[in-house]
Automatic annotation (TrEMBL):
Annotated family: Belongs to the class-I pyridine nucleotide-disulfide oxidoreductase family.
Keywords, sorted A to Z: FAD, Flavoprotein, NAD, Nucleotide-binding
Cofactor(s) this protein requires: FAD
Stored InterPro entries: FAD/NAD-bd_sf (IPR036188), FAD/NAD-binding_dom (IPR023753), FAD/NAD-linked_Rdtase_dimer_sf (IPR016156), Pyr_nuc-diS_OxRdtase (IPR001100), Pyr_nucl-diS_OxRdtase_dimer (IPR004099)
Residues covered by the FAD/NAD(P)-binding domain: 8-320
Identification of the protein by name: NAD(P)/FAD-dependent oxidoreductase
GO molecular function: flavin adenine dinucleotide binding; NAD(P)H dehydrogenase (quinone) activity
Keyword match Flavoprotein: yes
Cysteine disulfide links: C44-C49
Segments forming domain Pyridine nucleotide-disulphide oxidoreductase dimerisation: 360-465
Native source species: Arthrobacter caoxuetaonis
Coiled coil: none
Cited Gene3D superfamilies: 3.30.390.30, FAD/NAD(P)-binding domain
Length: 474
């Protein structure tokens, strides 16, 4: 061992989630060291949230201009692909993490680069690419913020074919003439539309339905928009095998003999917690079955190991992972000071990620957008809630002003026994900006009788709130 360090808290993974955990620990008066084998800032900064949205936004801005008479006539060209990719690159800082490293330093957090492995209670060994090893001993806690890794389903021939994962698609410097997308979740759907608008001929192969985790009317609006832009969506089917033909094209063979041809294949089939190779098995823990409480504490390991973000496997969303990390960092610092114990922290305290259970906001940044928070009607009923559903098209003065021929849909789910909303979904152009108000209503458990007094400004799309409450009966 070339060097041995000591600190209060070790955080494995210097993505947005790990950074938040370490920052809260330092704000709480403790020392922290981040360990990272790749770029500081993680997937969201370089290969997920930021570059994917940067690829989507120019196409959406162009579509918005074309959707309004008067500005439509001023649009004389199509997207400038090199400019779109250059702007995307700017959001990743050209895949250079110097700025993130400087932030870590200024925040007072230590940084060790390399691959980490747990070697005992509160002990970590880090090995860099040159084989140099560093041992780190934590006085209080180790936090696993290692994110998630792609799940690639078994597909005959895939090992012999070059294919993209989502990170390849968000960082590519080329726009393939033909793109095959396997997967109909958020990432696959967003990237399908982004590349279609950049000029690719896109075909999607979806095992079940597009955006399966969202209400069907919302998902159907997105599917209709993609199809109108030339995206072919094949649902309820999978490929039997994949191969390259003599011309170098990627070919997906479907049941029944149909062949799909592409210049690139994107496998966007989900992600799972990245906990393999960390030494958890040596500590008697199952990396595929690890669980934690709302403070992130892994109780079966004792009172020192925490897991947050995608690694925790609860809600694989960056903003929710950062929220969990803030709660975990605050809990670790408070426990180190003796202010709270190691039992389950109180719901809705700053030491508990309670919103994971009841008020998770998420957005699909396609055009139209889908924004959802809380529970769908079926989820509410599964939890024993006597729930009602109110839904209607988004057709208000604000939406008519936003775009000619605006199409949208809104849903409200109500706990009838408590008289509070437990879920909202909005679908349509520009609806992401409605989501935080809905998140506040669900998180704050605002009674509908009080929510009725939250008057939406006229003429905005937010008037849909009034229409939902009126249809509900208020």
């Amino acid at each position: 061992m070339a060097e041995t360090l000591e600190t209060d808290v070790i955080v494995l993974g210097a993505g947005a989630v790990g950074e938040n955990a370490a920052a809260r620990v330092v704000q709480g008066g403790l020392e922290a060291i981040l360990v990272e084998s790749a770029l500081v800032g993680g997937e969201c900064s370089y290969w997920a949230c930021m570059p994917s949205k940067a690829l989507l936004r120019p196409g959406t801005a162009l579509a918005e201009a074309k959707a309004v008479d008067g500005s439509r006539q001023a649009v004389t060209g199509s997207l400038d692909v090199p400019a779109v990719l250059k702007r995307r690159d700017s959001f990743t800082s050209g895949w250079d993490d110097a700025g993130q490293v400087e932030w870590v330093k200024e925040t007072g957090i230590g940084l060790v680069r390399g691959r980490a492995r747990l070697t005992g209670e509160r002990r970590v060994e880090v090995r860099d690419d040159a084989g140099v090893r560093v041992g780190i001993q934590a006085r209080h806690a180790v936090v696993l913020a290692t994110g998630a890794s792609p799940v690639t389903p078994p597909l005959d021939g895939l090992e012999q074919v070059e294919f993209w994962g989502t990170a390849d698609a968000t960082s590519s410097q080329e726009v393939p003439p033909r793109l095959l997308v396997v997967g109909g979740g958020v990432a696959g759907t967003e990237l399908a539309q982004a590349y279609a608008r950049l000029g690719s001929e896109v075909t999607m192969l979806v095992r079940h339905g597009l955006l399966e985790m969202f209400p069907r009317p919302a998902a159907e609006l997105v599917a209709g928009a993609l199809r109108s832009e030339g995206v072919e969506i094949l649902t309820g089917t999978t490929a039997d095998r994949v191969f390259e033909d003599a011309s170098g094209a990627v070919v997906l063979a479907l049941p029944g003999g149909e062949l799909l041809y592409g210049d690139r294949l994107l496998m966007a089939t989900g992600r799972r917690p990245a906990l393999d190779g960390l030494g958890l098995e040596d500590l008697g823990l199952d990396p595929h079955g690890i669980s934690c409480d709302d403070s992130g504490l892994v109780a079966e390991a004792g009172n020192w190991l925490y897991v947050v973000g995608d690694a925790a496997g609860k809600v694989l969303l960056t903003h929710q992972g950062k929220y969990e990390a803030r709660a975990t960092g605050a809990a670790i610092a408070a426990r180190a000071r003796g202010e709270i114990g190691f039992g389950e922290p109180p719901r809705w305290s700053r030491y508990a990620a309670t919103a994971d259970h009841a008020a998770v906001p998420q957005v699909v940044f396609t055009d139209p957008e889908v924004a959802m928070v809380g529970l769908r009607p079926d989820q509410a009923k599964e939890r024993g809630i006597r729930a009602s559903e109110t839904s209607l098209p988004i057709s208000v003065a604000g939406s008519a002003l936003f775009a000619d021929g605006y199409e949208g849909w809104a849903q409200m789910v109500v706990d009838e026994d408590r008289g509070i909303p437990v879920g909202f979904t909005f679908a349509g152009p520009g609806v992401a900006e409605l989501l935080h108000a809905a998140t506040i209503a669900v998180t704050g458990e605002v009674p509908l009788e009080r929510l009725w007094h939250a008057v939406p400004a006229y003429p905005t799309i937010s008037e849909i709130w009034l229409r939902l409450l009126e249809k509900y009966g208020l």
